[in-house]
C-alpha cells in the first residue's frame, strides 16, 4: 500500500535511505529521461540549492520503495520562480508566508497509470490545508495543465507559456482548497487522510522562519 | 484587421477570465468564436476519439464546424484516416496541420480528407492534444484560411485552448464518478480490439503502435480489473460497461 510521508528538517534522520532513493530517482527522471542536462551530477543524485533545511518533501513510499515525490519551499525565500524563472511570471510573482513553491514532482515510470499521481496531488492539497498554506506556485510543461484541471485544481497562469528546453512551459499558481482535495480523492477513489507524519510535531509550516525575501 | 495592434497576452488572460462566468456550452462556443477570430480562425472542434463501434459524432465535445463538412466527415468516417487526428494521439505538443505527415500515394483517403477540408475554408489549422491523468484525452483542432499563427501567437492560443477545454469539460461532466477513469483510453481501445478477435500484433498495426506496447496496455488493464488473462479482462470490462463492442 502506497502512503505519502511528510519529510522535513525535523524528521529527515528517519528517512535518510528514502531521501537517497528520492535524489537518485530525480536524477533518473529529470536528467536521464527528460533531458534537463544542467542538473546532471556525476554521483547520479540530483540535489539543488533548494534542497536545504526549508524544503518539505512529500514522498510516495510503497513497501520501503520511493515511487513518487514532490517538494514544497517557502516563497518568502529566494526560490526557483523568483531566481530562475521570473521571466515566466510577468503578471507578478506570488510571495507570502502562506504561499509555497511546488517543485520536483514525479512518479516513477511503472506507476504512471493515474492513481499514484492522484495520491500525490491529494497529499499536496491535504498537507497545505493542514498547514494553512493557501496557494502553491509551480513551473510545468503545458501538457500538465489539463491534468491538474482534470484533478479539480484551480490554476491561475502567471504568464503565457514559453519554450524551455524545447517544451512549452508555464508558471502558475494553484489554489489550495477542501473542494479540490475532495475532488481528486473522489476521482481516484481514495478514502480519507493519507499523510504520514512520523516524528513530526505538527503543524510544521509555523516553524518555518518568515524570512523576508 | 490591424493584427499588430492587439495584445495576445491580454486577450488570452481576459478570455480565460470570461470563461468562468459562462453557464452553458453554447456560451463557451460563442466566446471561443469571438476570440479565435482575432487570430484568423473560423472553425474549431474539441473531440475525443471514437472506439471501435462508436461514431465520431458521439465523441465530439463541442464544435463550430460548417454543417456540410461535419456531415461528410461523419458519413465518410474520416476520423479513422485523418492525419491530424493520427498525429494528435501520438504527441503531447501542439502542431500545425501542415506538420501532420501522410503519404499521398499510399494513403489516398488521408489526402482526400485534407483536400476536401479546404473546400470548407479549412485550409490551415492548429491542433492541440489534450492529455489527462490517464493519458490521451481529447483533440482540439482549429482552422481557417488566413491564420495569424507564429511563435508569438501560438503560446496565447495554446493557453486559451486548454482553458476553453476545461470550461467545456466542467459544464458537461460536473462530477467525477469512481470507476469511469479506471482504464486509460489506450487500455480500453486494446481490449475492444481483443473483443473483436484481433491479435496484439494486428491491433498494433491498426493503432500504429508496437505489439509489445499493445501487450503492455492489456497487461495493465488485467491488473486494474483483477483479471488473470485477456479473456477475463474483456469480460470484466464489458460487465463494468468500461468498453462497448
Tell me about the biggest sheet of chain A?
9 strands, mixed
| CATH-derived topology of the largest domain in chain B | Beta-Lactamase
Unreliable segments of 5+ consecutive residues of chain A: 209-213
Give the spatial strand order of the biggest sheet of chain B. Answer: 2-1-5-4-3
In short:
Chain A has 213 residues and is an alpha+beta fold. Helix content of chain A is 26%, strand content 26%. In chain A, strands 1, 2, 3, 4, 5, 6, 7, 8 and 9 form a nine-stranded mixed sheet that branches.
Describe the model.
The complex is a heterodimer of chains A (213) and B (245). Chain A has 213 residues and is of the alpha+beta class. Chain A has a single domain (2-201), classed as Aminopeptidase (3-Layer(aba) Sandwich). Chain A has five helices and nine strands. The longest helix of chain A is centred in the first third of the chain and has 18 residues, at 16-33. The radius of gyration of chain A is 16 Å and the shape is globular. The termini of chain A are far apart. Chain B has 245 residues and is of the alpha+beta class. Chain B folds into two domains: 3-172, 2-Layer Sandwich (Beta-Lactamase); 185-239, Winged helix-like DNA-binding domain superfamily/Winged helix DNA-binding domain (Arc Repressor Mutant, subunit A, Orthogonal Bundle). Chain B has helices at residues 8-19, 25-37, 67-75, 83-88, 108-118, 153-172, 185-195, 200-207, 211-225, 230-239, and strands at residues 43-47, 60-64, 95-96, 124-132, 135-144. In chain B, strand 4 and strand 5 form a beta hairpin. In chain B, helix 1 runs antiparallel to helix 2 (25-37), helix 7 (185-195) crosses helix 10 (230-239) and helix 8 (200-207) crosses helix 9. At the A-B interface, helix 4, strand 8 and helix 5 of A face helix 1, strand 4 and helix 6 of B.
Amino acid at each position: 500500500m502506497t502512503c505519502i510521508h511528510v519529510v522535513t528538517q525535523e524528521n529527515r534522520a528517519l528517512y535518510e535511505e528514502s531521501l537517497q532513493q528520492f535524489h537518485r530517482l530525480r536524477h533518473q527522471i529529470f536528467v536521464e529521461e527528460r533531458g534537463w542536462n544542467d542538473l546532471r551530477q556525476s554521483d547520479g543524485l540530483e540535489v539543488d540549492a533548494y534542497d536545504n533545511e526549508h524544503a518539505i518533501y512529500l514522498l510516495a513510499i510503497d513497501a520501503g520503495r520511493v515511487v513518487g515525490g514532490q517538494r514544497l519551499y517557502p516563497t518568502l525565500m529566494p526560490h526557483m520562480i523568483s531566481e530562475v524563472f521570473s521571466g515566466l511570471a510577468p503578471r507578478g510573482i506570488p510571495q507570502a508566508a502562506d504561499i509555497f513553491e511546488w517543485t520536483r514532482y514525479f512518479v516513477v515510470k511503472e506507476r504512471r497509470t493515474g492513481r499514484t499521481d492522484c495520491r500525490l496531488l491529494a497529499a499536496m492539497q491535504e498537507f497545505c490545508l493542514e498547514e494553512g498554506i493557501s496557494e502553491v506556485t509551480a513551473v510545468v510543461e503545458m501538457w500538465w495543465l489539463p491534468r491538474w484541471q482534470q484533478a479539480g485544481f484551480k490554476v491561475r497562469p502567471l504568464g503565457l507559456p514559453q519554450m524551455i528546453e524545447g517544451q512549452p512551459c508555464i508558471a502558475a499558481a494553484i489554489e489550495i482548497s477542501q473542494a479540490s482535495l475532495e475532488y481528486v480523492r473522489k476521482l481516484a477513489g481514495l478514502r480519507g487522510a493519507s499523510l504520514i507524519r512520523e516524528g513530526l510535531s505538527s503543524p510544521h509550516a509555523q516553524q518555518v522562519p518568515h524570512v523576508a525575501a | 484587421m490591424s493584427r499588430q495592434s492587439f495584445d495576445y497576452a491580454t486577450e488570452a488572460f481576459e478570455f480565460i477570465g470570461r470563461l468562468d462566468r459562462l453557464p452553458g456550452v453554447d456560451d463557451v462556443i460563442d466566446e471561443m468564436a469571438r476570440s479565435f477570430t482575432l487570430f484568423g480562425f473560423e472553425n474549431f472542434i474539441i473531440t475525443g476519439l471514437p472506439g471501435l463501434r462508436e461514431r465520431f459524432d458521439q465523441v465530439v465535445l463541442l464544435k463550430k464546424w460548417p454543417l456540410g463538412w461535419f456531415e461528410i466527415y461523419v458519413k465518410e468516417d474520416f476520423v479513422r484516416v485523418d492525419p491530424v487526428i493520427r498525429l494528435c494521439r501520438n504527441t503531447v505538443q501542439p502542431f500545425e496541420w501542415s506538420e501532420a505527415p501522410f503519404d499521398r500515394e499510399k494513403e489516398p483517403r488521408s489526402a482526400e480528407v485534407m483536400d476536401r477540408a479546404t473546400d470548407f475554408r479549412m485550409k490551415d489549422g492548429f491542433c492541440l492534444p489534450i492529455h489527462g491523468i490517464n493519458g490521451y484525452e481529447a483533440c482540439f483542432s482549429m482552422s481557417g484560411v488566413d491564420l495569424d499563427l507564429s511563435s508569438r501567437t501560438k503560446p496565447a492560443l495554446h493557453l486559451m485552448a486548454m482553458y476553453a477545454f476545461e470550461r467545456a469539460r466542467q459544464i458537461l461532466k460536473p462530477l467525477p464518478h469512481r470507476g469511469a477513469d479506471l482504464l486509460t483510453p489506450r487500455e480500453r481501445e486494446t481490449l475492444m480490439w481483443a473483443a473483436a478477435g484481433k491479435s496484439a500484433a494486428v491491433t498494433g498495426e491498426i493503432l500504429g503502435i508496437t505489439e509489445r506496447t499493445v501487450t503492455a496496455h492489456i497487461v495493465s488493464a488485467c491488473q486494474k480489473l483483477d483479471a488473470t488473462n485477456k479473456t477475463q479482462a474483456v469480460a470484466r470490462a464489458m460487465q463494468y460497461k468500461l468498453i462497448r463492442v
